[in-house]
Amino acid sequence: MKCPFCGIENTRVIDSRPSDDGNTIRRRRKCDSCAKRFTTYEKVETIPMVVIKKDRNREPYDRSKIEAGVFRSCHKRPISVDQINTFVDEIENTIFAMDQKEIESSVIGEILMDKLKNLDPVAYVRFASVYREFKDVNTFMEEIKKILE
Predict the structure, then answer these.
(1) How many angstroms separate the CA atoms of 12 and 71, rounded?
(2) What is the pLDDT of residues 1-29, one digit of tens each?
(3) What letter does residue 127 receive in the DSSP assignment?
(4) Between the CA of residue 95 and those of 29, 33, 50, 90, 92, what are the distances in Å?
(5) Which of 68-86 are b and which e, b meaning 16 or more Cβ less than 10 Å from the residue's Cβ?
(6) pTM for the full model?
(7) Angle between helix 63-73 and helix 105-119 axes, rounded to 10 deg
(8) Phi, psi (5° rounding) for residue 20?
(9) How far apart are alpha carbons 104 and 109 in whole angstroms?
């Protein structure tokens, strides 16, 4: 494993333990060259999933896209990075538990919104406003009313 600080490939594992979800192994590593420490996560490789976009194009599933959307919607909210990572893990587990080789992006979006509603209502409205492409304030207000009910 390359050191993210100096780029040298001589790193060693100094601690290994299962993560909270039990699906990954967290490894603490130390670089033999610069002596800096860093963390890596080892996960079982799954069958590649294909996402069907709105325009019907297909592309490989990419976890970082979900992470980016969640990070943007949670910007300046009292939600830690660990909470976001756990949240994205939950979404990913839900998606992979469906055991499909292809999944529509709209299904992923709905799963994300449903879970985001419970994590943080403000983040939910932020995500929904982009995902559902709110055209005006009335649409925005309708979504807020759904939360309040």
Answers:
(1) 31
(2) 899 999 999 899 999 998 777 778 999 99
(3) H
(4) 30, 40, 11, 9, 5
(5) ebbeebbeeeebeeeebbe
(6) 0.64
(7) 40
(8) -60, -40
(9) 9
